[in-house]
């Protein structure tokens, strides 16, 4: 029995919905409206003391942090490569995503397209945009010689990076010059049981 | 053959030095002076296109991101618990560290005690301090019922969180009220083959 505490527009939550669908795992979705501070209620803080979505509940056990949840669900499946070095490379890209990518690209999207407060965040956005492009440049460079991020095979590293990259234009990032990233989008979107971030499946 | 590309004051680099020592792995240390922009040279960017330390080289293969390196080195040792859920909990705390903890606590220390530019960052520090205390509160709460972060056994989750927490006062965080965290420091520091962040071993 799986339950996902989910905020629908969140790329971090979408990662989990995408993988659950690709693994054919059925689950209950509980909507947590973070705009209405529902991730900071006393009840939710019992589930995740860090007050963030997504949270997965599996047979009564709770797990937070999107990329840790991806790892948990994908263990012993083809979504994680087998070798120790290859698994560490998956984690390398997922830590890159949470440290160098998400705080810039997802935050710009959140301020501009979810809160609709671009003007209020005008100054702070400058650093986010510059650092976000730096992260996109690292991805574009890697994809010059690779179809996917690790072992040239679709893995949870691709899911983690795809989630916010493919909606980066909602944070006013111009992706038109990123040919390798755009070609990789098509490869991700052609995977079996792919669903979009807007899918209500 | 292991080589660590290392910036000595960095907590992220210290994580790797501590685990390597606890595993009894000998290695070469190559100093990368990030204050002198040595992590952004064309040579270094070939090793890590994201331009950050630490980087581990093992038998010619490179790996970046401190917590991914911890995972790589600790695989199949007692520093990672065995179960799938327990392993995902280790990752949950390591992603918490890189997303909610390090960008606040390590950055305040970097600005104040490494760059010595507290005045220049006065405004930006306010948010870092507030969010850093929030991360410390999450840790203190967890340690009310646990001796260590996962399975009540010392693991790489403890190493990841210890690295910047135990020097948080260098970022002007007052840890005196965090009794559980201070007691956990003692448990970490009593581990076999523990070395301090200043050790030149």
By CATH, the architecture of the largest domain in chain A is named Up-down Bundle
What shape does the CA trace of chain A take? globular
Average per-residue pLDDT of chain A, rounded, comes to 97
Strand order of the largest sheet of chain A: 2-1-3-4
Q: Quaternary state, please?
A: homodimer
Helix and strand content put the structural class of chain A at alpha+beta
Helicity level of chain A, as a percent range? 40-55%
Q: What is the first-to-last residue Cα distance of chain A?
A: 17 Å
List the secondary-structure elements of chain A in sequence, H or E.
EHEHEEHHHHH
The greatest interface here is: A-B, 33 and 33 residues
Give a structural overview:
The structure is a homodimer of 201-residue chains. Chain A has two domains: 2-74, Glutaredoxin (3-Layer(aba) Sandwich); 84-189, Glutathione S-transferase Yfyf (Class Pi), Chain A, domain 2 (Up-down Bundle). Chain A has seven helices and four strands, in the order E-H-E-H-E-E-H-H-H-H-H. Chain A has helices at residues 11-23, 42-47, 66-74, 84-114, 122-142, 156-165, 179-189; strands at residues 2-6, 28-31, 55-58, 61-64. The first copy, chain A, has a four-stranded mixed β-sheet, with helices on one face. In chain A, helix 1 (11-23) runs parallel beside helix 3 (66-74), helix 1 packs across helix 6 and helix 4 packs antiparallel against helix 5 (122-142). The model of chain A has no long low-confidence stretch (mean pLDDT 97). The interface between A and B is medium-sized, with 33 and 33 residues.
């Amino acid at each position: 029995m799986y339950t996902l505490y989910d905020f629908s527009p969140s790329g971090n939550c979408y990662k989990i919905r995408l993988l659950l669908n690709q693994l054919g795992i059925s689950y209950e979705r509980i909507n947590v409206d973070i705009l209405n501070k529902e991730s900071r209620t006393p009840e939710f803080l019992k589930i995740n003391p860090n007050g963030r979505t997504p949270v997965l509940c599996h047979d009564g056990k709770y797990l937070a942090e999107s990329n840790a949840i991806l790892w948990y669900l994908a263990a012993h499946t083809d979504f994680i490569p087998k070798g120790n070095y290859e698994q560490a490379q998956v984690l390398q890209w997922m830590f890159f995503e949470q440290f160098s990518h998400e705080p810039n690209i997802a935050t710009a999207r959140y301020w501009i397209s979810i809160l609709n407060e671009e003007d209020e965040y005008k100054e702070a956005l400058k650093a986010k945009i510059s650092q976000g492009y730096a992260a996109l440049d690292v991805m574009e460079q890697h994809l010059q010689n690779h179809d996917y991020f690790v072992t040239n095979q679709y893995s949870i590293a691709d899911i983690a990076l795809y989630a916010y990259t493919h909606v980066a234009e909602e944070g006013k990032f111009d992706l038109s010059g990123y040919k390798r990233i755009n070609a990789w989008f098509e490869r991700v979107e052609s995977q079996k049981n792919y669903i979009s971030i807007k899918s209500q499946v």
